[in-house]
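> Could you send the MoaD/ThiS family protein prediction when you get a chance?

Sure thing. Input:
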Amino acid sequence: MKVLVKLFATFRDKRFIKQEMEFPEQTEVRDVLKVLDIADEEVAILLVNGRNAEVDHPLQDGDTLSLFPPVGGG
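Output:
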């Protein structure tokens, strides 16, 4: 199945901004994080198709996964 993965802020460093990736059926968000070498606890906001989700969320063909790290500033 194909999933569009969008990375934001520091997650883009040495990776990509957005990329369509191929995964087997029954893939969960945590499986994508492992492939990207991103620890679960590094993710502040996780969206699947624009809705809040958790790392155990099962992905479907055509989903869009957006990953945001904690952001600071002032």
